[in-house]
Amino acid sequence: MKITGDTKIVGILGDPVSHSLSPLMQNAAFKAMGLNICYVPLHVRPEELGAAVNGLRAMDFIGANVTIPHKIEVTRYLDKLDTDAAIIGAVNTIVNIEGELSGHNTDGSGFIRALEDEVVLEYSSETAVIMGAGGAARSVGVALARKGIRGITILNRSKNRAQEFCLLFAENFPELAVSYKTFDDDYGEVIRNSKILINATPIGMKGYLKGPSGVVDKITKDHVVCDLVYLGSEETPLQIAANKKEATSMGGIGMLLYQGAEAINLWTGKKPPIKIMRHAIEIE
Ligand code: NAP
Question: Is 195 a catalytic residue?
């Protein structure tokens, strides 16, 4: 990459940020697209988030990605949010147009693109079980609701966050059947009756499936099992378990890839080369 006086800057705000695969993936895309844009990791501690966001304006960044733990808090410092980011209450992409910062959330659309690489779905006749009720669950839930999915059941550790999810979705998507169970409830039937099972918790991140073992027992070959967790080029424990049941499965790499691609599209109006981005992170 040749840095010149005209190079435009975009970054990722996170704490920590050193583990992020985004700089590799996004810079590979910019290079292949022939764009004079450089993507940098920005280690921002929570108490400095406001200053860092103002810095994006001051230094004329074209935008930024936002990762853990800033996705929710960053919304306070932006000038506007798009409709879905406002519903989700979290932002993973900032666009700077002449000092006006808008917040977007490409996690959900990234998830849908990854899902549609694996399977063709008639959303209006399907239901999904989403494990987790945090930011990722909301992003994926909104994207599935926009696709017209028939119903979503949240399966979560704590009852209060699951209830909050249901209230939010009932308010914003009145056509959607939304319900919840906790891991202490009997959730076998909802898994059996749903086509799609999504893990939007960190269970499996350390390479082992320490979580509700009952979930795996209910998987059949007819399920589409989506793990948002990614472990480099390795399959996640949930994927491995789903494959043993001959289910359709996917890990979180596809979502990571496409949420990044959607962010590039927001910054540049152009479609990045997915194969090159995938290659950049798969060789890691
Ligand atoms: P979050 O907002 O902190 O929410 C985490 C959720 O997981 C909560 O509902 C929490 O339940 C539940 N949870 C946490 N630890 C658990 C455990 N040990 N057992 C059972 N449930 C547990 O996090 P998030 O931003 O939604 O992220 C969730 C996962 O998605 C992370 O692993 C993240 O890496 C992944 N993700 C992947 C991508 C991608 O591009 N592939 C993008 C975004 C996120 P309580 O409500 O009970 O606390």
Answer: no
Residues 210, 239 contacting (CB under 8 angstroms): no
77 and 62 Cβ atoms separated by less than 8 Å: no
Strands 196-199 and 224-227: parallel
Of 86, 39, 28, residue with least CA distance to 63: 39
3-state secondary structure of 248: strand
Q: Whole-angstrom Cα distance, residue 191 to residue 204?
A: 19
pLDDT digits (tens, 9 = 90+) for 128-158: 999 999 999 999 999 999 999 999 999 999 9
Q: What are phi and psi of 221, to 5 degrees?
A: -65, -15
| Ligand 1 mean position, distance from CA 203 (Å) | 8
Q: What is the pTM of this model?
A: 0.95
Q: For residues 243 and 251, is the Cβ–Cβ distance under 8 A?
A: no
Lining residues, ligand 1, CB within 6 Å: 107, 132-137, 156-158, 161, 200-203, 205, 211, 228-230, 252, 255-256, 259
Distance of CA 154 from the midpoint of ligand 1 (Å): 13
The rounded distance, in Å, linking the Cα atoms of 65 and 49 is 13
Q: Confidence band (pLDDT; 50, 70, 90) for 211?
A: low
Pick the catalytic residue: 31, 71, 181, 210?
71
